Amino acid sequence: MPLEPEDGAKVIQLITSRYDQREWRKKIEKTLSLPPSGIKDEEQRKIFLYFKIGLQAYKSRRADPPSWIVGGFGTKEVIERARFNPTVIDPQFTKDHVADIGKDPGSDVNENWWQEMLVKWFEEPEEEGEDDTESESDESSDSSTEGDSSSEPSDTSHPQETAS
Fold first, then answer.
1. Are the C-beta atoms of 56 and 19 separated by less than 8 Å?
2. CA-CA distances (angstroms) from residue 106 to 10, 35, 99?
């Protein structure tokens, strides 16, 4: 279940305000590596994608997984560009859309909040989870009866013999 707009705003503020704090750099890099589908609000998702792509470090084509430049002049430049020219994110964006970029999200955004945010980013709604457990129990009872009716397991192990 994607983050609600309040948490999405805090994530963007965290990325854009605490990048120079050494204790937050790894957490910000981890956040940037998350899929954008974890943010519910479409405008916030566009801002997140802008930073995800804009802060990606230059790497060769043969390099390992993507990495991000968090901290320093490069990060500040990407953030300032978005603040002063919001159309780099989206042509319809105005300064109102990026008003909170660079502002600290507050003291409630700490290690515990960040851990809970990660859980929410990937959390599935409970309604779907209940349906999945019911269908799994139905499938397991069906497969146990199917297993009794098949007497030759070698049919699946030699597909070439049956294809001829």
1. no
2. 9, 24, 16
- Inter-residue contact 119 to 38 (CB < 8 Å): no
- Is residue 2 within 8 Å of residue 38, measured between CB atoms? yes
DSSP track, 114-162: HHHHHHHHHPPPHHHHHHHHHHHHHHHHHHHHHHHH---THHHH-HHHH
Closest CA to 85 of 137, 35, 50, 123: 50
- pTM, two decimals, is 0.71
- What tens-digit pLDDT sequence spans the chain (164 residues)? 688 999 999 999 999 999 999 999 999 999 999 999 999 999 999 999 999 999 887 666 666 677 778 888 889 999 999 999 999 999 999 999 999 999 999 999 999 999 999 999 987 655 544 544 454 444 444 544 444 544 455 555 555 555 54
Enumerate residues 6+ apart whose C-beta is below 8 A from 83: 98, 101, 102
Rounded to whole angstroms, how far apart are CA atoms 75 and 19?
8
